[in-house]
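Lab notebook page, bench 4
Experiment: in silico fold of construct C2
Operator: M.H.
Input chain length: 69 residues
Purpose: comparison with the prior construct
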Amino acid sequence: MIHHEHEIFVNTIMAKVKVLKQLVKNDVTAYLKYGNDYGIKKKELAIEIDAVEKDIENSIYLKLDEVGE
């Protein structure tokens, strides 16, 4: 049986993954929409994607540290 706090953690990670998926989708959409002007939009989206990836990674490592204690 999954403890309530583990269920919350998994749901939080899944929500962050959904945000990441949407950002990647926006990246592809921006490429198709902006064509030659895509470079500026790409930089903005790359920063957002990187931040969400780091957030997911940090959340997982923090949870692993907590479980290991």
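Observations: The chain has two helices and no strands. The helical segments are 4-34, 38-68.
Next step: discuss at group meeting.
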